[in-house]
Amino acid sequence: MAPKIIYVTGFRQHAGKTITSLGLLWLLQKKFSPSELGYIKPVGQELITLEDGSKIDKDAIVVKEFSGISDMDLHTVSPVRLGSGFTKNFLDSENKAEQTKELTDKILRSVKKLEDKKVIVAEGTGHPGVGAIVGLSNANVARLTGAEVIFLSGGGLGKALDMLEVDLHYFMSKGVNVKGVIFNKIIPNKIEQIKHYITEDLLNTRFPFFYNPLRILGFLPIEESLSRPSMQLLANKLDSAIVIGNPNEPQWNIPCGKMIIITQDKEHLIPQRYMTEKALYLISAGSGDRINLIIEAHKKENIPIGGFIITCGDTTQLEDKTLTILENNSVPAIYVTADTATIRERIEDVYENPKLQTSDIIKLQKIQNLFEQYFYWDKFCDIMSL
């Protein structure tokens, strides 16, 4: 008997597909042993290089680390990689049809290697049309693999329905049946309102073209800690970053809290006015006295610090006393050459578009709790005939 393939796709990049894949794999282990479960990322965009020089999608590494599936073969689960320059090379190719067939065959071979599994979670990439240029959009791949599609919608009311208007029609046009919708990243105090207005009756009135009625599989609140980076991630994301301290210590993998930019001089700086738990401070080099003041204020209130990003390294040398203060207090810190405004923009982008890392073990428990509490597991099992 062929395995059931559940294809997780969404309205855009960073919609929560990897988190949902992990949540499903966690819950599926209530019914199946890990050896009976599989995972595949048919088309990948964000690639990393393995020790043998081969490239695979980054999400495959994260899922292997956290899913509990010990026999996961990374080369099998990431068959097609659309890295930088791929689209241009494809458009320049004189054998586009042949190249599409080759990529399609790679996906089918990977699925074939997982035929001993009972359930496979397939994770889509980007928005529904990503990969369409080579005939491998999320809808194309779902149809190719005969998968059951679960669609991740954004939160909100009008915005969610407007996006579904476009995205679900796209799947319909490709002859792909969408079985369920998850509304994700909802402001917690808006959940009841969203549930009141967005019902299965409303969805099936607006989108009556699927051969099974659309089912709602959950209204998931935004979990702030899942959308916040650790100092470990920031160190990897910021160019020419110099790490201060030991990045292998646990506090480097704790999600940071609110980002706070320090511009006041020491005489006017009152940290208690904006002090928050695990705050991430942006402050220029040469600010040892202010850094010490902030650390002491946090220690007095027993509120942990997320870390410091020390900027302006190209114009101001890091003082020895600043280095000593940070090391003596074991506070994660990163020293960068760029100015504060530039670094702020880069960090805001990371906050807006975080990606799970293999070091994010703290986030794994939050993902499991999120799906235990808000995902409609029994309904999911029913519509998937599990």
Automatic annotation (TrEMBL):
Ligase in keyword set: no
Keywords: Glutamine amidotransferase
Gene3D superfamilies the record matches: HprK N-terminal domain-like, P-loop containing nucleotide triphosphate hydrolases
Annotated Pfam families: AAA_26
InterPro entries: P-loop_NTPase (IPR027417), Ser_kin/Pase_Hpr-like_N_sf (IPR028979)
Keyword Amino-acid biosynthesis among UniProt keywords: no
Domain of life: Bacteria
Subunit note: Homohexamer.
Protein name: AAA family ATPase
